Amino acid sequence: MSSLRKVSCRTIRDTVEKLFLSASTDLGKDVFGALKKAASAEKSGLGRFALDRIVENARVARKEGLPICQDTGMAVLFLEVGQNVVVTGGNLRDAVQEGVRRAYRKGRLRKSICDPISRANTGDNTPAVIHTEIVPGSRIRIAAMPKGGGSENMSSVTMLLPAAGVEGIRKLIVDRVREAGPNPCPPTIVGVGIGGTMEQAAILAKKALLRPLGEKNRRDRRLAKLEIETLREINRLGIGPQGYGGRTTSLAVHVEMMPCHIASLPVAVNIQCHAARHKEAVI
Amino acid sequence: MSKIKSIKTPLDDRVCRGLRAGDRVLLSGEVFTGRDVAHRRLYEAILRCEKLPIPIRGETLFYAAPTPAGPGRVIGSMGPTTSSRMDPYTPKLLEMGLKGMIGKGRRSAEVIGAIRKHGAVYFGAIGGAAALMAQCVRRVEVAAYGDLGPEAILRLAVEDLPLVVINDMNGGDLYEKALKRFSKKKQFFK
Description:
Order of helices and strands of chain A: EHHHEEHEEHEHEHHEEE
Distance between the termini of chain A: 21 Å
Shape of chain A: globular
Largest sheet of chain B: 5 strands, mixed, barrel
Number of domains of chain B: 1
Order of helices and strands of chain B: EHEHEHEHEHEEH
CATH class of chain B: Alpha Beta
CATH superfamily of chain B: Fe-S hydro-lyase, tartrate dehydratase beta-type, catalytic domain
Number of helices of chain B: 6
Radius of gyration of chain A: 19 Å
Strand content of chain A: 15-25%
Largest interface: A-B, 55 and 53 residues
Distance between the termini of chain B: 34 Å
Oligomer: heterodimer
Structural class of chain B: alpha/beta
Number of helices of chain A: 8
Helix content of chain A: 25-40%
CATH architecture of chain B: Alpha-Beta Barrel
Strand order of the largest sheet of chain B: 2-3-4-5-7
């Protein structure tokens, strides 16, 4: 039996804090590069104007340590906890929530979380949404993702008829982006989760957004093809950057899939705005 | 692309009449921020015939809630939120003389109709360009509903805020125009 590895709550808390601080101000190189490339290729004058401002904004945010977007999101975390890890000095959930609380206070990030009915703000941007998975090994992988509300509002889970097949899935993805139009701050990244159950499809779609831009699905060639074809179709819609018109409506479509029930075909479409912020660390 | 127009708040009929969907403008002067809960409160106060905490006639509302300001700064990062959430309350505000709105995303048919009827304008600000946009803000003060924290109504003094006209008072709609011009009809698959 392999020996147990101790990881302190303090380390977890500080890592979470650091990840959210960095994600909010420092746009990933992959996204930044894709935006720059899109700006130079965009034919629409207003679309180009929007992309140029977005690229310049990312530069200013990084240089000045300012949040890229005022919507610093709901804190979403994916934790992969190795089964040989022992968490010491407290409990894992509290450590993560405390890391989020500290990041939003220290980084002067906006506190955007409220009671769904009274709409009263919780004041510290907690609770975070935490997806935890127990995996083999003795490490903890943490992915932190501040997720904005505008693009999340344009996302959905649909239980398709199995007869809809891959054509039905294609149509659904493109229709969702068309219906969202200018609202989710295009150019967007489209995360798609196929299969599992209703909630599993949504989690797959969100996880798909963590994949580096420009990387296609490597596990399944059918999905890689679906990604390319739906992206091409989306970028023919004409919505363009910010809905001002143009060819850059989405930067990528990322599809993840798992088997589902013989009666079902769940498909989740999770839309991510151009401020696609996420950082990872391994403890 | 048309040339960039510099305009000042408060907006009047003459300025609004001259603006067309797709125009780029640089807006200077005072604007008020206001989003979800602030809109609901304003609307409910109007229905109860109460005096409003901010003037509406001739004013411009920016659907935004900035991040907190760091040391030596007037504001953190600030950009538009999705305007459609304010749609249920907006025709009433337009009826009361609201002239300008700054946000992002489509408006309802009711809002677009009220923009035409009352002679107003809806501007788009670039969503997610918030660190850059904040550089246009010169002064910030809480104008109303301070208890709402990030959602409070702020009075902002802005200089050369870069905007695009989305809906004009002549019925022009940039989002519709953009789709007509840039969408490609041919489908790769049915």
